[in-house]
Amino acid sequence: MSTETKTAVQTEPKLGVKAIVKIGMLAAIAVVLMLFEIPLPFAPSFYEIDFSEVPVLVGTFAMGPFAGALIELIKILLNFVITGTSTAGVGELANFIIGCSLCVPAGLIYRMHRTRNNALIGMAVGTVCMTAIGCIVNAFVLLPTYATAFGMPIDALVEMGTAVNPNITSLTTFVMFAVAPFNLLKGVLVSLIVFLIYKKISPIFRMH
Question: pLDDT tens digits, residue range 88-136?
């Protein structure tokens, strides 16, 4: 590890006032983006893509993984305050974990060498991590929690998946044919947008 990398690792958690303002601004943008959701033809209606991870990933690349995790946390908390929760906070915690699973690995890899290739590698690794962790969290946390919150059996959620994709016949196939493609597509689209815009807007958010 180079001296520059060690310095970045040691100083990253020390956030000044300017950095905190930037983190808050990116989190606010992320909350607004959460309001614009796009339904998908291969998943039930409660799976809709939003692009709130774009400002989170921009902040992660500009200010580091610690700042990215803070942006994700503030985004979730603000959305919790604005819209409330139907899962006693469990869904929000799961969404925080899934969001961080994209941004934090990408940020850690990019921080080693701030190059375009490392950014691409980081986003690819982050997308794979989000897809894998999203499947696990949905199967064992989110879907059971939603079933309990709305007073319906897991089978009813599976049937909602079957209605849009006949290959979905069980919780396992629900995860394979709805959850996995959903997270994979979201990771790819978010990464593509960040790749296209980051160079132009990053000077605004870089931590000095």
Answer: 678 888 889 999 999 999 999 999 989 999 999 999 999 999 999 999 9
> Could you report the per-residue pLDDT of 41-73, keeping only the tens digit for each?
998 888 889 999 999 999 999 999 999 999 999
The rounded distance, in Å, linking the Cα atoms of 101 and 17 is 26
Residue 199 CA neighbour count, 13 Å, CB half: 7
Whether 106 and 162 have beta carbons less than 8 Å apart is answered as no
CA distance 89 to 77: 10
From the DSSP assignment, how many helices (H) and strands (E) are in the chain? 10, 2
Q: Are 98 and 141 a contacting pair, CB within 8 Å? A: no
pTM score: 0.86
Going from the C-alpha of 12 to that of each of 5, 113, 115, 169, the distances in angstroms are 10, 15, 19, 46
Residue 47 backbone phi and psi in degrees, to 5: -105, 100
Token pair for 109: 């890899």
Q: For the chain, give the number of residues.
A: 208
List, in order, residues 6 or more apart from 2 with CB less than 8 Å away: none
Task: With beta carbons less than 8 A apart as the criterion, state whether 110 and 118 touch.
Answer: yes
Per-residue pLDDT tens digits for 103-113? 999 999 999 98
User: Residue 186: what are its φ and ψ, rounded to 5°?
Assistant: -60, -45
